[in-house]
Amino acid sequence: MADGVKVADIKAGRSWLWGPYSRLGLWSALLTLLVDQAHKWWMILGLGMREGDRFGLLPFLEIIYVKNTGISYSLFDSASFEWQLTLAGFAAVVSLALWVWLARSSTGWLMAISLGLIIGGAIGNAIDRVLLGGVADFFLLHAFGYSWYVFNIADIAIVAGVAGLLYDSVIASRNDDTKSA
To answer: Is the pLDDT of residue 53 over 70?
Structure first.
């Protein structure tokens, strides 16, 4: 039976590491990673920003350089290099798992782009952890006395990717319901 599944997968053009939408997912991940890293290094090297430097860009947006040594919302904060390597390793494992999901999937372009956004963002933040000792965050939204947390382009990509996956799953569920009715 297992051999039959492998033959069917090969005939369908799927393997554990490459599938029908892998090229699209790869481009999405690479573009996300490139834009994220280019922005971070332009801010740090090009503008010479140091931790804590800030300037107003719009009435509701400030640019501030903050290094996040924890996970989301600075949870589990630790500046030790070992902890940063642990978090970077976790991001690598999750990215690999998402890549296998992408390679095994044949649901469509939205899932491929969404998974690519998440993978590219996770790898971008992992690179920061190894090279900078934490994730470089720059954007601070605020309005009416309320400030959101500081985030970066990789974070935007991850959130957009998750939103894309959620939307794709709702559309797939609706299509399945329509077919079964």
So the answer is: yes
Cβ neighbours for 154, distance < 8 A, ≥ 6 positions apart: 32, 36, 120, 121, 122, 124, 125, 135
CB 14 within 8 A of CB 106: yes
State both tokens at 150. Answer: 């500081």
Which percentage of the chain shows pLDDT scores above 70?
Answer: 83
Residue 156 CA to residue 160 CA, distance in Å, equals 6
Q: Which amino acid is at 166?
A: L
Q: Where are the domains of the chain?
A: 18-180
Question: Which member of 36, 128, 137, 168 is catalytic?
Answer: 137
Across the range 63-92, mean pLDDT stands at: 86
- pTM, two decimals, is 0.85
Catalytic residue among 155, 168, 176, 177: 155
Verify whether residue 53 is a known catalytic residue.
no
Q: What is the pLDDT of residue 75?
A: 63
Q: Is 155 a catalytic residue?
A: yes
- Residue 178: exposure state from Cβ atoms within 10 A (0-12, 13-18, ≥19): exposed
Q: List, as one string, the DSSP characters of 130-151.
A: HHHSSEEEEEEEEETTEEPPPB
Structure tokens at 92: 């690598």
